[in-house]
Amino acid sequence: MAEIIQKTDKKTIYREGKTLVKLFNESYPKSDVLNEALNTARVEEGTSLNVPAVHEVTKVNGEWAIILDYVEGKTMQQLMDENPDKMQQYLEEFVDLQVEVLSQKVPLLTKLKDKMHRKISSTKFDKTTRYDLHILLDSLPAHDKLCHGDFNPGNIIVSPDGRKFIIDWAHATQGNARCDAARTYLLFKLEGKDAVAEEYLKLFCEKTGIAKQLVQKALPIVAASQTTKAVPEEQAFLEKWVNVVDYE
Fold this sequence. Notes:
The protein has 9 helices and 10 strands. With 248 residues, the chain is of the alpha+beta class.
């Protein structure tokens, strides 16, 4: 009997025995499904990280699906919600894991700069704003670190024996760590977790030696790229960050 874990307007995730099935609705682009499976397989094969193994990409009742290992455990977000007194400890572990991800290299992944340039070009911002964003993006050093692209506590499953598995590699690229940190920071801000966002950024900068201003400089780029798929209530918030191009 299938056990539904999560259901959204785009996909249904359910458990079937020892496997997890991500079932995408018929409007979801086939190329995005195949890309997510390929990204996950490349990270699984090319790194030392704990990543649920991909078993197959198939069709279930006419809809595309990715079949992966099912990982027993709770997400780090669940643990944070259940144990608010341990928030600092969980944030430390969260940042340590992100630093470990960024220490890996997966040469066949899409380059983050290429992806960001495409997304900036497809935004609804005026020509001058897009030009400024392209210039800002070009000014970032061209690194090749593994970037998750959606690194948040909900995408980390902590197994009963304490191992941390990282899921949802749909947005993985290779590029500059600042962009991955900026994305995580914005995700906390989008959820209204301002204090958590600031503590996260402080920890990330302490543990990586990257200056806070350098992460802040990447925020307009990341916010702009997010507007291409943002839900209406997030749009204004993200646009505000795009307009804050100058930081102290």
